[in-house]
Specification:
The chain has three domains: about 140 residues, Glucose Oxidase, domain 1 (3-Layer(bba) Sandwich), CATH 3.50.30; about 110 residues, PtsI, HPr-binding domain (Enzyme I, Chain A, domain 2); about 280 residues, Phosphoenolpyruvate-binding domains (TIM Barrel), CATH 3.20.20.60. The protein contains 23 helices and 17 strands. Helix 1 packs across helix 6, helix 12 runs parallel beside helix 14 and helix 22 runs antiparallel to helix 23. The longest helix is centred in the first third of the chain and has 26 residues. The radius of gyration is 25 Å and the shape is globular. Bound molecules: phosphoenolpyruvate and magnesium ion (MG).
Amino acid sequence: MVELREEETEAGEAFEHRFEGLGVSSGIAIGPAHVIERGLIDLPEYGLAEHEVAGEVERFEEAVAVSTKQLRKLRSKASDLPGAAAEELSYLLDAHLQMLKGSRLVRGVAERIRRQHINAEAAVQGALVEIGQAFAEVSDRYLASRIDDVREVGTRIVRNLSKVPYQAFSSLPQGAIIIAEEITPADTALMDPTKVGGFASALGGAEGHTAIMARSLGLPAVLGVPSLVTTAKPGDLIIVDGTRGHVVVHPSRETVGRYQRRREALLRRQRQLDRLRGIAAITRDGERIGLQCNLELPSELVLAHAAGAEGIGLLRSEFMYMNRDQPPGEEEQYRVLRTIVEGMGGHPVTVRTLDVGSDKLAYSLGEHLSPSVNPALGLRAIRLSLKVRPLLEAQIGAMLRASAHGPVRILLPMITTVGEVKAVRELILRVARRLSRSRVAISDPLPPVGVMIETPGAALAADALAQTADFFSLGTNDLTMYTLAIDRGDEQVAHLYDPLHPAVLRLVQFAIAAARRAHIPVNLCGEMAGNPRFTALLLGLGLRDLSMASPSLPRVKQRILDLDLGEASRRAEQIMLQSDSGVIAALIDDFNALD
Ligand code: PEP
Ligand code: MG
């Protein structure tokens, strides 16, 4: 639930606005706002052949449909705001929605594409210029100012057509706080954590990939805060408290002081934890636990080292495909992977094949990713890789070549059938033969091939999958989403997203048991692994290897050092007899408090 409170500060100063949202990445950032407006993007104009026109009109209509969906979502959130704010924002969004229903803009664009045989982006720009000229002749100042709304709707359509991310954030003032309606994983990939202080947006859920990237980069972030974009002006002082999920615009001097003290305390705690870097993660009763890091970007390698990671448990290869027009080839990927493998100095690097689709979009793959009625159930991850074989071949070639420089493990996302694993294994053998024929060095034996257990189907078929996989990696982010049918990136249902639901835990337990029966290693790389609240439960269920965002590793290690594994296993047994996630949560919290 979102709350808005206004407090008057000293006379003459601006009002302090406080918002509550989803705190998705802990820490406190205080800095000037960088508000992202939807500026018109400079896009090329190109001609179309007669037979391409109908397809282009369809592409435009799809972008209008996506824009409508976004606005409806914002509209439903706007009504959560109290009083006048709700009314004002709703009124504006209604006007925008109205414009998407056969307005002069929408009709004009379709007509331009048909008449002038030009691409949709150019047609939108042309229509905006024409409408702008007509508005300029209107003498009523109120009516004339409505051109801003038309422009805003137009740029929304253009952005949805081109899937162009926000501009790189390189010219921001130090410590800037990015404020936007929506921040995609591709946008987050452009943020340099040494420059950006943190971010907050209206849309997005706690387990979506934007949130995951914020945690990996150690950037404080709050999502799900509507009307921020209209309240905060560029340069305004903003506080983002990702630990508690608060955003404060125009904080008073007292408020700034309070947050500065809390930030200092958090940093002191972090420094204490940093001292654990060289210490092995061993429970009080002597069990050694393997702690690895998840990597979204190569730049995080420094953080993984600083945290004392014993390897990369999950390298999300998606970053190589973001913010570019063409997908990378084998050679480019090989060079990136080689740097990471060498950087890990003999520790294993688990490289996952491409997992785009759903909330992870890469417009370099635009031609292969058509809009899906239900993207999370569509052409995502391994399904896309097996459909577009050259993409998979380039990835596998790069991984095999990188394996000559250190231990590499290949991980396959969104596997649901044994047939998919077999198909990839055949392809790996084929690529290995090709490389060997060309005398290119690869590891011998070939890298192990593992399977993400992240759908209920894969968990329930874990015995069969364990016969074809060399290891399992439990992806509880997607496993929770698909088991409970809750979109992990949708802030409207975030309160229902619950990895402690007995159904999810039973699937986790089932997959661990299957791996044990087949004598293959199993680890967990979902976000649960990085939350010390869940450590006792996960170890109690039998896991001995966890992979997480680097900033989380010291906290989890501290928890392991405090833990008695025998007691944790007994508590996990008790938990697995429960049918209510509220009771399960209480049993976990009690146990953590006792220890
Ligand atoms: C998961 O689903 O738990 C996982 C680790 O993969 P991703 O978050 O990249 O989908
Ligand atoms: Mg996943």
